Amino acid sequence: MGATGVAIVFPGQGTQQPGMGAPWRGHPAWRVVEEAEDAFGEPLASLILDAGPEDLARTRGAQLAVLLTSLVAWEAVRDTVPTPVAFAGHSLGQVTALIAAGVLPLDVGVRFAARRAECTQAAADANPGRMAALLGATVALAEEACTAAPDACWVANDNAPGQVVIAGTPSGVEAGMARAKELGVKRATPLNVGGAFHTPLMDPASAVLTAELAAVVFAAPGAPVVSNHDGAPYTDGDGWRDRLPEHVRVPVRWRTTLETVAGLGATSMLEVGHGSMIAGLAKRTVPDVPVRNVATPDDVPVISEVA
Fold it and tell me: For the whole model, what pTM was predicted?
């Protein structure tokens, strides 16, 4: 355990918002966006400055926007934070965590994030699906609801106690939601996403990513990176060649991820990026571990309260 016990955590898709990168324009950390554009060969700044809701509703635009905003915020605070006890990120945020931890270089990580978004959306287009949040549900209840569905339905996210997401074919999710209500779930809410992510319907994306990562060089991280796919901490680099493709087709075990982060000695967490999604889930999962957020330059001076 490090002297400070700070864990660095990154949000995933769903936290995007028009103009969320605007506060950072002109800040020295903005160079991350410029470096990403040079490496990517495509303008990216507009995604976090003036992209509208429609652009940010698309998987590729949303994920690149969230990734870039988090990386700019990390650049602004990285030198002020003592060596973290761990890195982690929710779904897409896991790619951000791997870049921040030094496992992937910025240029490789940004290109991978874009390709990951393209592949998962292509899989979603080929195998249409839906997702729905079950509030007040346990994983066991969600699994029972999915089993009762006559069509494909799976648990896709175990986010926190009482917050489980199911996903599958449209008819499968509809039946799963109905069964969950019969089993006593408080609320079943369809999510505005473009497919059944983190389910076997993403198998085609997993296969493509496996092939594309074959030649990628992975480095060992500066601190353990806790994987969503099993909630375990990893200090190697090469294992991510298999974990990243697997990650898109299996459930996000975020509750377990947070419990692991706390078990590694995190006495506080720093949520780096727009929004407070991680803080909300952490409050329900590891309430004794406070979370502070770095979303704008104004948040940087208060980092000493976490460290």
Answer: 0.93
Domains 6-125+201-305 and 130-193 share a fold: no
Residue 59 to residue 40: CA distance in whole angstroms:
17
| CATH ID of 130-193, from 3.90.1720.10, 3.90.960.10, 1.20.1290.10, 3.30.70.250 | 3.30.70.250
Which of these, 256, 253, 259, 254, lies nearest to 287 by C-alpha position?
Answer: 259
Average pLDDT of 254-272? Answer: 97
Positions marked catalytic: 91, 198
Find all residues with CB under 8 Å of 111, minimum gap 6, and list them.
39, 40
Instruction: Place 302 in a pLDDT band, splitting at 50, 70 and 90.
Output: low
Q: Is the pLDDT of residue 305 over 80?
A: no
Q: Which CATH number fits domain 6-125+201-305: 3.40.50.300, 3.60.15.10, 3.40.366.10, 3.90.1150.10?
A: 3.40.366.10
Domain parsing of the chain, residue ranges: 6-125+201-305, 130-193
pLDDT at 265 (0 to 100): 95
Cα separation, 107 vs 229, in Å, equals 24
Q: Average pLDDT of 238-255? A: 97
